[in-house]
Amino acid sequence: MRVEIVGEDTTAFHIARLIKQRGDEVRLVCEHEQRARELAAKLELVTIVEEATSLSRREPGVDWMPDVVVALRPCDWENLAVCLAASRLQHVPHTVALVHDPELRPLFEDVGLDTIVSVAEVLGLLVEQHAATRGIKTLLSLSSARVEVLDVQLDAEAPAAGQRIGALGLPTGALISAVLRDGAMILPRGAMMLEAGDELVIFAYASARESTLRCLLGRAS
Amino acid sequence: MRQLIIIGAGRLGTLLADAAWARGEAVTVIDQHAPALERLGEGFGGRVVQGDACHAEILGAAEPEAARVVCATGQDELNLLLALLARERFGAAWVCARVSDSRKRPLFEAMSVPTLEPNMLAVDAFDWDGGVQ
Hints:
The structure holds two protein chains of two kinds. Chain A is of the alpha/beta class.
């Protein structure tokens, strides 16, 4: 696969390296000659010094036509223009546009860009998943069986801290499969006493998620 | 009266805004820099909105629905984005984008965004017989 990356910052460098390592053919488009030379030497690939949004690249009949164009410029309007030019004028089959302001995503979608990546959205979602739900992570969601794998950390207020596993009264449909304590994995038995700070790995039906969390933490989120 | 919205209070934007006001048009100028907006003529009595027009609440404050929108910032690609934003997301009746680099016109044509090209207009207006006896 031929990949054209339009950008010259650290993100562009690492993505170019990653894609090249996987065996794809990468070309980098930079606006600064010195940076282009530096990246070409470090990554051993072809760099082109040209305005990011120039239309003279990829003209019909040129020898190197990319299968994918990835736009990683610092301004949203540059990435929009790069991807629109690639898809509308040069018939590049696939484009990836970085959008900094998530509010602009609907516009990028409306004009028909196929892959739109918002770092703010991705990181925001991760933070929400991990930090906002105090001590509860959904590790895996097996949608075919409606089963979830949960990682639940007991805090000092958790009703389960100081109780034996056998006495918890966990709902049917939930199974504690491992207890992580001080970096070690302990296979749980009924007589095991849980402590604050323990991390429980639990298989549970999605329908039993709430009652399981209430039983362990006294709260469902 | 149908609104005329001008985004970008540069030389072109302010000149156009003053001319529109002088013609009696309902005109709104948007720019993110207050000093730029001060370049409007003394007699200008239209509306000014300070802020980044890429943000929905700023462009929305100018009420672009059914308006005519001229995107006249110094960046061709920004003008394209703003014109598409006004048309696709706000339903502006008519948009146009200032383009400095006329080699980029095909992209604006592909997106059906009319262009205003000061450099090309200057070439078109050039008097080829000037000074020729």
